[in-house]
Write a structure and sequence with these properties.
The chain contains 4 helices and 2 strands, in the order αααββα. It is an alpha+beta fold. Strands 1-2 form a two-stranded antiparallel sheet. Helix 1 crosses helix 3 (62-74). The N and C termini lie far apart (73 Å).
Length: 125
């Protein structure tokens, strides 16, 4: 038989759920921002790795970097070059990490964005 929660326990549980919801929302937003940064970095560079991205992203975003790269890879926006390099992150002890580039799909997305931006800037006739 389960014990019924007191009003204080129910309120504490509800508050915890709200906090978790807020953290999840912030995490999703942070992941989106890091994904966008990886995409923009891919536009500006022929190839890249987590090493090069860690150098330009704020430290707070480093925890989202692997998830962002994996998300973009899964979506087909970036692709593996077939190369690996040693990680420059001390805690990884030189573990091998992948080198990436924008895929054809990623370049098509970039071109569509450029076209929409140019059209938005044109004055209405």
């Amino acid at each position: 038989m389960t014990r019924r929660l007191s009003p204080a326990e129910r309120l504490a549980s509800a508050e915890k759920d709200l906090l978790l919801d807020r953290l999840t929302e912030q995490s999703e937003w942070s992941l989106f921002l890091v994904e966008h940064a990886v995409f923009q970095f891919g536009l500006a560079n022929d190839t890249f790795s987590a090493n090069s991205l860690r150098d330009v992203l704020p430290e707070l975003s480093h925890g989202f970097l692997g998830a962002a790269i994996n998300s973009l890879r899964t979506a087909g926006v970036i692709e593996h070059t077939g190369r690996v390099v040693p990680s420059t992150l001390d805690s990884t002890h030189g573990h091998r990490i992948s080198v990436w580039r924008l895929s054809v799909k990623g370049r098509v997305i970039a071109e569509q964005r450029r076209t929409r931006a140019q059209q938005a800037r044109k004055p209405a006739a």
